[in-house]
Design goal:
Residues 10-203, 851-1041 form the AsmA domain. By secondary structure, the protein is of the alpha+beta class. Among the domains are: 2-202, no CATH class; 970-1103, no CATH class; 1122-1211 and 1228-1353, no CATH class. Helix content is 21%, strand content 46%. The chain has 18 helices and 70 strands. The chain has a 57-stranded mixed β-sheet that branches. The protein has a 3-stranded mixed β-sheet with strand order 27-29-30.
Length: 1355
């Protein structure tokens, strides 16, 4: 097609070229005919231009034609609706034709094949063409576009005409012999194709290499070829390599596949050789090898052969070896999909497929092979066979019709020596040897299609049993599915059949909405392990009609069943009659069969329990129905004997079955006999026979319309309990039933009724009477119980409840309950077992050691807000005005937010009692506020031994298998306090009285002391403000330690141990006095009070040993004190005599001393006069010396001034030198540091010299200082002279009190700041100035020490 378009287009361009190089003067009116003439010469075919012609010469040659036809006008080879072409002018000068643009609009190429498969366009032309003689490389076409082109191929061999249209292509030709390129899209038989075609140059042998790439829109794949195209004698052939590759999007689950083959295509056939097919990804491929041939001709046909290698479906469509596929889920769906997608070919042919190994479901399917023949209407399966797991084989042959309603007919057979292994593989289950099945073989015909599956001529061999007949399944679109079974068998084993069905389906058989027609005859019937001697069934349930022609079962575990009859319109308005009889010595077999089909149905469960007591049974039943005017009138009669009771059931119904709730129903049932317990068991209750027989009867009646209102009445008198109830039931159309009832229960003693169910109720003082009434109403399983009132045992009660009757669960209810009295021990026995508190007692415990019994709270889950006038925990311990939230279920009894009055105080707490099989766990916590301790303490002669207000907090937990074990296992702790109390028979004055008696001479004997102390102890009491203590509970014992009571003169402290298991107390209290006057070294008055015995009245014992020791030491100490007192008196008399003698001696000495002192005074006065004279002389000498010192000081200052001047000159020279020697600056700074002390001292000197000369005080030596010139730089000064002694005192060591003798320093002008001394060296003066000292705030003179030890005043 590409070369044809290019050739025709090139011809028209060549015609334009010839016209251009023709005569310079052209007759333009003959322009169209000129093109036609030149085109015919060039192409060798007639060319006709029926449309317009447009030619331009400049700037580039251009031609535009319309309605061009090549070939005969009536039957053209090609038609072109529009043509445009433009050539490059410079190329013409080189002798070439370079087409830069060409457009072909709606070209149509008409090709045909003759009977020999030759293409007409390639036949030898009848005329000589110029195009065959020109240089092929001189014509180049670029930018050739085809719009809406088409190709028509007519095959004379078959008469078929094939058309490809809507071709939009872009073409290129490097010459008339190639290379060629084409790219675009076209439509073939309604399917869009995209294609790319490329070729090389025509070779010398006449062939050209062509590559193609085609992608159809209806197949997600890409086809490509690479081969050589040639023709000979008009027959085109194309051979080479072909590939196909699936196209999948990223993340898609579509199967990836690819194929390769060598091909050879000519006019007669397409042959594929060395073909390979890959399914799946390249890393996990499934490969097949083969080939095929497709023959063209009047009767086309094909043959294909494919042999697969190992096919691993677990990896391809499963999760690999770790998660293999499940054949029942994956294989059948894909197999059905594959068969349904098989194409209906109108070409005959054969396919031979072989797969040696298929890995699927973790096992191997081997030797799969099939031979298929296409018949034009479907596929003939000559044989499809293989080997399956479980040593199984299958084989089928037949015909698969793919016309309007696909179907399959043929023969089939399957056999398995290990069907259980085959079933495990089929369902993807782990192998279980316990589910072995007998070998089985099935064979027969199969007819499948149009919603039907028939297995005629069926033969089943299972073990030693053979069954023959027919099984079919039909599912028409206009009615329910129909299963037909027509079999004759040696033995029908329903159990075995169910095992096979469950093994291969994984599900139990359940009744479903299907029609059935059964004709089954068996010499023996086995169901649920129960055998019947024979069975004959001929019945059908089809099109809403039940027909029982015959149903006879003989000796089915002692039961004989015989039924027949017919009823039509079962689901609407039944009409007909069915009768039956049942005679049975045992109903266990029949119940076992029912249990297999409905194992969890509650009625079947009750029937299973009742079956032993329902036999022997002799029952007759008849169901009759008569329909008239769209309604039915049905009646059911069932009567006879069941066990020792009589059963009578009569009922009628008027209405429609499909609107049952709108009908009128009446029914009455009576079941009664001489043994009430038997009646309970016949109703499905697991009652226990008791020796005393009592008659029993149950009646139930119904009347009315279920939707409007159905009235019912119920009465029972069984085992000493009577129940009467009447009410109504209404069944709305789209909601649960609504019901209400009045219920009354009366019993003189419920103990017998409890015994019938194996329950022993708690023992009370008398019979367990009950007289209760209530109103109950509800919707579905939800109910409300109101106005519950009456008496139970010795309690009056009333309350309201609401709850739910859960399916296969407990009765859940909540509400409130008011009681006159609540015995907590009896309440706990609902969980722990009856009379567990009153069991056997051990010698070392007051609690019962009886094992816990059966819980009486099975089947209930109650949450109640309970109030009670009294709550009894024991005979002594009770709460008044008790309340709390009670939770009761089979394994739990708890009280939350419990409150009450106890001992005049407020009691609150929480308790949990849990049951786990034979063990109970008790935990809780409580708080007691403002209780009267007087009511809790033990008494003596009717009077409590202690008073006060008690506060206590405690928590505890424990577990055990008996009450004794539960108490002995308690642990926990708490705190308590008693305030504003008094402890009686504890007299703190007993110590004083006994001590006084001992001091008075009472015999210090232990018995006498103990007796005396006990008498005095009982005669008084101890008052206290507060007593605090902590409690520890471990192993059923309560410990209280370090309890103390402090009074004004007495301290009580002690500890206690309460053994809860023995209910005994062991404790001690130490009592001692704190009177300082009665202290004795090494002992103190103390007595121990010991308590032991029963908790309610322990015995008291006194330990006065410490007191006796104290009294003995006290007696010794008193004797010592008396002796010491006598010795003290004697010593006092001797002291008084010594003092008198001493006073006489002191008087004589005083007089002698006075005489001596007078003599000394006179001598001192004479010495003082002489001293004053010496001091006057010394003063005069000091004045002279001061004058001399002043003169000397003036001289020294002048010399110091000169030294300063010299030092300044030296400094200036040093600075000049330092400026010249800048590189030695670091060394100069080091020298400066070494001389800092001298320079600082020099600065201090200059500061002193800058001050004004001070005036001298009269009669005081002074020093005048001359102001020296202010130095410009620091310098060192020569050392000063040695210190000068003034008035015999060294300047450096003048005492502070004598400094004033020097007088102040006279300064001219304001005083100068001397700087601040550094702490490290007093000889250094800092560069930072000190604040000037005000002259009027100098205060005490301050000095600095100058080098040489001299002092200088600074303020």
């Amino acid at each position: 097609m590409n070369s044809v378009y290019i050739t025709v287009g090139g011809t028209l361009i060549l015609a334009l070229v010839i016209a251009l190089v023709g005569p310079l003067v052209i007759d333009w009116s003959a322009y169209r005919s000129l093109f036609e003439s030149y085109g015919e010469k060039i192409l060798g075919h007639q060319v006709t231009i029926l449309g317009e012609t447009d030619v331009q010469l400049l700037p580039a040659p251009y031609v535009k034609l319309s309605d061009v036809r090549v070939g005969a006008v009536e039957d053209p080879l090609m038609t072109i609706k529009g043509f445009e072409g433009r050539i490059e002018l410079p190329s013409l000068l080189r002798g070439e034709v370079h087409v830069t643009e060409m457009k072909l609009n709606e070209p149509e190429l008409n090709l045909s094949l003759d009977e020999g498969g030759r293409l007409d366009v390639l036949q030898t032309t009848s005329r000589r063409s110029v195009i065959s003689e020109i240089d092929p490389t001189s014509l180049i076409l670029e930018d050739v576009s085809v719009r809406n082109g088409s190709i028509v191929l007519t095959d004379a061999r078959t008469g078929e005409v094939r058309r490809a249209g809507n071709a939009n292509l872009e073409l290129y030709a490097g010459g008339l012999q190639g290379p060629f390129k084409a790219e675009g899209a076209m439509l073939y038989e309604g399917v869009p194709y995209t294609l790319k075609i490329g070729s090389g140059r025509l070779e010398r042998n006449g062939q050209i290499r062509v590559k193609t790439q085609v992608s159809p829109a209806n197949v997600a794949a890409q086809f490509s070829t690479d081969g050589f195209l040639r023709h000979q004698d008009g027959v085109v052939s194309y051979y080479g390599d072909a590939e196909v590759q699936s196209v999948t999007s990223e993340g898609s689950d579509d199967l990836e596949w690819a194929g390769k083959s060598k091909f050879n295509l000519d006019g007669e056939r397409l042959e594929l050789t060395e073909s390979t097919l890959r399914l799946g990804s390249e890393d996990r491929p499934i490969t097949a090898e083969g080939g095929g041939v497709y023959s063209f001709g009047p009767e086309p046909e094909f043959q294909a052969v494919a042999q697969f290698k190992q096919v691993d479906l677990d990896r391809m469509i499963g999760g690999g070896p770790q998660r293999p596929l499940v054949p029942s889920e994956a294989v059948m769906a894909r197999l059905a999909g594959g068969l349904s997608s098989l194409p209906l070919l109108d070409v005959k042919g054969q396919m031979d497929l072989t797969i040696p190994v298929v890995v699927a479901g973790g096992s191997v399917v081997s030797n799969l092979s099939t031979l298929l023949e296409s018949t034009g209407t479907g596929w003939k399966i000559d044989e499809l066979s293989g080997e399956l797991p479980g040593r199984s084989q299958f084989k089928t042959s037949g015909y698969l019709d793919l016309r309007n309603s696909a179907g399959y007919q043929g023969d089939w057979e399957i056999s398995s020596r290990q069907p259980h292994q085959l079933a495990h593989w089929w369902l993807g289950e782990r192998k279980d040897a316990s589910k072995r099945l007998s070998p089985v073989a099935l064979k027969g015909r199969v007819e499948a299609g149009s919603g039907a599956l028939r297995l005629p001529d069926l033969r089943i061999d299972a073990g030693d049993v053979r069954s023959v007949g027919l099984i079919s399944f039909e599912h028409p679109l206009d009615r329910s599915p129909l299963i037909t079974v027509d079999m004759d068998s040696d033995r029908v084993n329903l159990d075995e059949i169910l095992r096979y069905v469950e093994a291969f389906t994984g599900k139990k058989i359940k009744p479903s909405a299907v029609d059935m027609s059964i004709r089954l005859y068996a010499d023996e019937l086995v169901a649920s392990g129960v055998k019947a001697k024979s069975m004959a069934v001929s019945a059908s349930l089809s099109r809403d009609a039940l027909s029982i022609e015959q149903l006879k079962i003989r000796d089915f575990a002692g039961a004989y069943i015989d039924m027949k009859g017919r009823i039509d319109d079962l689901s609407t308005t039944p009409q007909g009659n069915i009768k039956g009889t049942l005679t049975a010595s045992s109903l266990s077999g029949a119940v076992a069969v029912l249990e297999e089909y409905a194992p969890e149905h509650p009625l079947i469960e009750r029937l299973k329990t009742a079956a032993p007591d329902l036999a022997p049974a002799n029952l007759k039943a008849e169901l009759s129905a008569y329909a008239e005017k769209g309604r039915t009138d049905m009646s059911l009669n069932l009567f006879g004997e069941v066990g020792v009771s009589d059963l009578d059931l009569n009922g009628t119904f008027e209405g429609r079955i499909d609107d049952f709730a709108e009908g009128d129903l009446y029914a009455e049932m009576t079941l009664g006999g001489k043994d009430g317990v038997k009646v309970l068991r016949q109703l499905g209750f697991e009652a226990i026979p008791i020796t005393q027989l009592q008659p029993g009867e149950v009646r139930l009646s119904l009347s009315g319309s279920p939707r409007d209102q159905l009235a019912f009445g119920f009465s029972s008198d069984l085992v000493g309990m009577k129940i009467l109830s009447d009410g109504t039931v209404r069944v709305p159309s789209r909601s649960a039933a609504v019901w209400s009832a009045n219920v009354a229960l009366q019993s003189d003693d419920l103990a017998d009724y409890g015994l019938a169910f194996g329950k022993v109720y708690p023992i009370y003082s008398g019979p367990l009477k009950a007289n209760l009434t209530a109103q109950v109403e509800g919707r579905g399983r939800d109910f409300t119980l109101s106005e519950l009132k009456g008496q139970l045992a010795n309690m009056d009660l009333k309350g309201d409840l609401e709850g739910t009757l859960e399916k296969n669960g407990p009765l859940k209810a909540s509400g409130k309950l008011e009681l006159s009295e609540l015995d907590m021990r009896s309440l706990s026995e609902l969980l722990l077992g009856s009379n567990v508190w009153a069991g056997v007692l051990q010698e070392d415990s007051i609690w019962s050691s009886q094992a816990l019994g059966q819980s009486l709270a099975d089947g209930v889950d109650l949450t109640l807000d309970v109030t009670s006038d009294r709550a009894l925990f024991s005979d002594e311990f009770r709460l008044d005005a008790a309340s709390g939230q009670l939770r009761l279920r089979s394994d739990l009894l708890s009280i939350n937010e419990g409150k009450g009055r106890f001992a005049g105080g407020e009691f609150s707490g929480t308790f949990d009692l849990q049951r786990d099989q034979g063990q109970a766990t008790l935990s809780g916590r409580f708080r007691l506020d403002d209780a009267d301790f007087e009511e809790l303490a033990w008494t003596d002669e009717g009077r409590a031994l202690a008073t006060g207000k008690l506060q206590a907090i405690a928590e505890f937990e424990g577990s055990g298998r008996t009450i004794s074990g539960l108490v002995s296992g308690l642990s926990g702790g708490g705190t308590f306090s008693v305030t504003n109390g008094e402890i009686r028979r504890v007299n703190p004055a007993a110590f004083d009285l006994v001590i006084k008696a001992a001091d008075a001479g009472m015999e210090l004997d232990e018995a006498a002391i103990q007796s005396a102390f006990a008498d005095h102890l009982d005669a008084g009491s101890v008052k206290f403000n507060r007593v605090d203590g902590s409690l520890g509970i471990a192993s059923g014992r309560i410990r209280a330690r370090n309890i103390s009571v402090d009074t004004a003169g007495t301290t009580l402290f002690g500890s206690a141990l309460i053994d809860l298991e023995k209910w005994a107390l062991t404790g001690d209290v130490s009592m001692k006095t704190r009177d300082e006057a009665q202290k004795v070294a090494g002992a103190e008055p103390q007595v121990a009070i010991l308590y032991s015995g029963p908790l309610e009245n322990p015995a008291r014992k006194l330990d006065t040993g410490p007191l006796l020791s104290y009294l003995n030491l006290r007696a010794i100490e008193l004797n010592v004190k008396r002796i010491e007192e006598e010795q003290r008196k004697i010593a006092e008399q001797e002291r008084m005599l010594d003092e008198l003698k001493k006073k006489q001696e002191e008087e004589a000495a005083r007089k002698a001393k006075a005489a001596e002192e007078e003599k000394a005074r006179q001598a001192a006065e004479a010495e003082a006069a002489a001293e004053r004279e010496r001091q006057a002389q010394a003063a005069r000498e000091a004045e002279a010396r001061a004058a001399q010192l002043a003169a000397e000081e003036e001289a020294r200052k002048a010399e110091a001034l000169a030294a300063v001047n010299r030092a300044e000159e030296a400094q200036r020279a040093a600075e000049a030198k330092a400026a010249a020697e800048a590189k030695a600056a670091e060394q100069a700074r080091a020298e400066e540091a070494k001389k800092s002390s001298v320079q600082d001292f020099s600065a201090r000197i200059r500061s002193v010299l800058d001050g004004d000369a001070a005036e001298k005080k009269p009669n005081s030596p002074s020093v005048s200082i001359v102001d020296p010139p202010k130095p410009r730089a620091k310098s060192s000064l020569p050392a000063l002279e040695a210190p000068v002694t003034i008035g015999g005192v060294n300047e450096a060591t003048v005492p502070a009190g004598e400094v004033d003798l020097l007088g102040p320093i006279i300064q001219s002008g304001a005083p100068k700041n001397l700087g601040v001394l550094e702490a490290g060296n007093d000889n250094q003066v800092l560069r930072g100035p000190l604040p000037d000292l005000p002259t009027d705030e100098r205060g005490t003179p301050k000095f600095i020490e100058l080098p040489g030890g001299r002092l200088l005043q600074v303020n």
